[in-house]
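Record type: monomer structure entry
Structure origin: computed from sequence
Chain ID: A
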Amino acid sequence: KKDEGKGEKKGEKKEEKKLDDSRPPVDTLLASDGKSLIMGRCGSYRDGKGAANEGKQLKWFTDCMEQDCALSLNDHIGCRYLDGDGFCYNTAKAQKWCLDNKLSTYCQNDGGDEWGWASAKMGTADGDVTGWTPAKDVALYDEKTGKAKYDDSGQEASFSCACLKNCACEWGINLDKSKCRCASGGQEKVVGDQTTAMPRILDPKSSNSKGKCGCICGHKYGKIEAKK
């Protein structure tokens, strides 16, 4: 028999915490123009995607994911909190502000404890990487209209990304001409879209690759069968 008088009464609604939509201090999460403080290539994509061709959109976004991925590996900053577009707030001050102001509408894109470093008191990650993963199902834009692009079947055209953490990659004209060196040698696992073909990983281990990332967005070299 359940204890009476504990828990919610029948028909009683659970009290919801009200979000705070006031703007954060300037240069914490936002610049003076109101735009999120994010990594450079992410900003290029955000500001230029509507007028850029497909190739440039994919290039900017790939570079953005590599920058965000590398930021996630920085145990002084990390990438637990992202802006509304899914890009990392790029300073320790911003990440900490969101942790201290969880009800801010600007801090609702929270990757969770596994995306924050325990050493920075931002979460629970305490190994070589956090739980950060690259973006998926990102819309492509029509450079003529600046609006979302649709394919021949009427579906919204989109792309996803895959990354290798703690890896430095050299990109060739095709997959066979591309290669990555990773801090863990050939043991590094792909995070993100598992159908994206990635370059081969060279042994032995490369300590110079620590803190770097190699990413592909939009199936640059084609697809592979999803891993079971």
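Annotation 1: Helices lie at 40-48, 54-73, 92-100.
Annotation 2: The longest helix spans residues 54-73.
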